[in-house]
Specification:
Blueprint: E1 2-5, H1 11-17, H2 23-34, E2 44-46, H3 48-54, E3 58-63, H4 75-89, H5 97-104, E4 111-115, H6 119-130, E5 134-139, H7 145-152, E6 157-160, H8 165-179, E7 182-183, H9 194-203, H10 205-213, E8 224-228, H11 233-245, E9 252-258, H12 263-269, H13 296-305, E10 308-312, H14 314-325, H15 338-352, H16 357-363, E11 370-375, H17 382-390
Parallel strand pairs: 3-11, 4-5, 4-7, 5-6, 8-9, 8-11, 9-10
Antiparallel strand pairs: 1-10, 2-3
The protein binds pyridoxal-5'-phosphate.
Length: 391
């Protein structure tokens, strides 16, 4: 495990880059999600056994594995971005799902396309399914067959490429512009920002739910939030929402990544703090986090708001999967896939492994700490889940 204190944290930039994540914009996303027939709040668990065993004040886990029956949080972003696309096309801002669906059904179906490690593609396929649209999903080489099935089960066409995630994103973008498809990608680049920004706003529904579930005291009572990053859209959205809700005085924000795909860590380590790309196969079981290129929107937020960047081996995520899946004492049992479990695994590791005493002291983690982690997926790769739990 490697760690880095963020040298680029900056108040002015934090205000600037979190500016789109206002309470009003979060409410819009939440209102849309509330209008979906499949909407239900996901659970927030307090793990007392975990905090007692590790010497922490409190540990909260928001469990996104049940979101929309998709086994991961990603449907929040895909559905909100699809709604945003139709709202703009039909000039129907702030409409409910049913209002949009009725209006959309007057037009021929469109084709939405995306590249994905699996979870985002499943979210886009589901979004296309509920809006009665067509969908093409491109997966990187080595994608687990269960991830392909999860997409095709929802009526989308799936193609596994022979290139890595970042190259697959480029491929999906090229195919989309060649065929007139609408690219619904969860990462941004110059000139492609509207849809990824809507996707990120969609993720903030997680934060607005947590705010209600944590009452009394809301987010102000938290001391640390640990967020896992792939391209960073999830961590960036959650960090921005928390930054604004806490009036610019957020808990410590800790970003964790797989060491094989640590593009945030790598960017934070650079002299100028530009978003840097990692190349190669990025072999990690944390498929959702196996991304080599930060989304610039997300990077700007995390660069200005995060306190620490941490690079972790797969074994740390495995510890998190086991901790959550075979909980201490009477804690809720949480089924967590490799990308979902990394923050819990990191927290457990830093609190229980003496060799990380300096990091623990630096992070000021102890009996007064109240820590939030988000389990972003269930057992999306059942074979790997079984292997880890039996390991
Ligand atoms: C389960 C899970 N957690 C976290 C992430 C990270 O999201 P992002 O790529 O926006 O950083 C992903 C992305 O696919 C994911 O599938």
């Amino acid at each position: 495990m490697e760690w880095l204190e963020n040298q680029f944290k900056n108040e002015d930039n934090a205000k600037r880059y979190t500016g789109g994540f206002t309470g009003e914009n979060m409410k819009k996303a939440r209102r849309f999600h509330n209008s979906l027939p499949q909407y239900d709040k996901t659970s927030l668990h307090q793990l007392t056994g975990f905090s007692e065993e590790t010497g922490l004040g409190a540990v909260y886990v928001k469990d996104e594995s049940s979101r929309f029956g998709l086994n991961a949080f990603k449907g929040l972003g895909a559905s909100y971005a699809m709604a945003g696309y139709f709202s703009r096309k039909l000039d129907m801002a702030d409409s409910t799902f049913n209002e949009l669906l009725e209006a959309v059904s007057e037009y021929p179906a469109e084709t939405f396309a995306t590249a994905t490690d699996g979870n985002h593609g499943k979210g886009v396929a589901w979004g296309a399914e509920i809006f009665n649209q067509n969908c093409k999903v491109f997966l990187p080489k080595g994608a687990a067959s269960t991830r392909v099935t999860a997409v095709t089960e929802r009526g989308a066409e799936a193609k596994v490429t022979d290139i890595n995630y970042d190259d697959t994103v480029q491929y999906a973008a090229d195919q989309s512009s060649g065929h007139g498809w609408i690219l619904l990608q969860d990462t941004a680049w110059e000139g492609y920002e509207e849809i990824p920004s809507d996707i990120m706003l969609g993720y903030t529904t997680i934060v607005s739910e947590i705010t209600e579930q944590l009452e009394p005291g809301n987010l102000d009572q938290l001391t640390h939030v640990i967020l896992q990053a792939g391209v960073g859209s999830f961590a960036g959205a959650v960090a921005a929402a928390i930054y604004n809700i806490t009036d610019g005085d957020p808990p410590k924000i800790i970003v964790v990544e797989p060491s094989e795909a640590n593009c945030m860590f790598h960017s934070a380590e650079s002299e100028l703090g530009d978003p840097l790309r990692i190349y190669g196969d990025m072999n990690t079981m944390m498929a959702g986090l196996s991304c080599g290129e930060p989304s610039p929107i997300a990077w700007n937020i995390l660069k200005s708001t995060a306190d620490y960047f941490i690079s972790c081996d797969d074994e740390i995520s495995a510890k998190g999967m086991r901790m959550l899946g075979r909980p201490a004492k009477d804690d809720a049992k949480i089924t967590s896939g490799a990308s979902g479990a990394l923050p819990a695994g990191f927290l457990y590791e830093v609190m229980t492994n003496e060799s990380h005493a300096d990091l623990k002291a630096n992070l000021n983690l102890g009996s007064d700490s109240k820590v939030l982690v988000i389990n972003t997926e269930g057992n999306t790769d059942p074979d790997n889940y079984k292997k880890i739990m039996n390991g």
